[in-house]
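Field reference: "sequence" (input) and "structure" (output). Example, JmjC domain-containing protein:
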Amino acid sequence: LEREYWRLLSIPMHEQRLEVQYGSDVDTGANGSGFPHNHSPDAAKSLEELLQRYAQDDWNLNNMPKLPGSVLQHLDEDIKGVMVPWLYAGMCFSTFCWHVEDHNFYSTSYLHSGAPKTWYGIPCASAELMERTMKELTPELFGSQPDLHMQLVTMFSPKTLREHGVPVYRATHRPNEFIVTFPSAYHAGFNNGFNCAEAVNFATVDWLPWGAKSLRKYREFHKLPVFCHEALVCTLAETLVDGSDFDFEHTESFLLPAVEQLLQDYREFQRRVDDSNSEMHVAKREDEGLRCVTCKQYCYLQAVVCTRCRPPHGSNGGPTVGCLEHYPTMCKCGDPENFVYLYRHEAARLEEMLTNIRNRLNGVRAW
């Protein structure tokens, strides 16, 4: 079956006669999950005792994103496909192309029933090699679509990738089994026949640097983020430090550097504005959802807004907003007298977060 799959994919596109369908990314919040779920007290009462145990189980994908230890529990919204599982109805040869998860999240896929899935995986350490290889193999496609590797439409055989030095591993996913993928680990595969699977994301504190890395790529390719990474880091800094389940190693290795980077970026933004020698207005704000009109990234802590120019066509609407990198060229007027520098917190607030984290770490060391 696997040989036939790759034989079919090797046929030139204009000669292809095979068509398959894939019921992918079906919202379980609207259409129902393969796992029992306590949506309400009435629903909980109606579940039999056995189902009730499954409804509360940590491996139930409806529960996994918000388990203790998952930083996604601190997000205010239920993001479809991230916080709310997606259901997948596959047929023979229906395919999920090479990709990494949004924001480099971990992911878990559970096969409820039906035929197996064939998975291929690449270690996260080889992600950049994988991307370079994809560009080398299809330069004409990447020339017109530089973000092609983010579109889930490209499939290369393990044989081809190995010939270019990319390590590829294989797994067979059978019913009642879980497959877990790690941050920035490219994966792909196909269904061996009709089946039904479900998948969701999760993220532990050690994911933070991987999430930050994904934002740098999103900024480069102007890709919309799924949520605001800076807001999550601030929330973690304010909640995890005071918790009874404080994790010394993860806080020191991942959360502390993330907050230090926030403060460094904040000061750089502030310095750039101060050094512009302009009459830029300054205002404190609590606006949610401001995004740079150029790179589409959230401007949670700081932003510059032009009060005169309308945002470019095709942007997210609202005011003309610029991040540190793009505010000087965000609009046609380019006149700092029309600019307003907005900030959510004073630098002292971030410094206080850092101090609290360091004090807690020092307290553990002293103990």
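The chain has two domains: 2-204, 228-366.
The longest strand covers residues 106-114.
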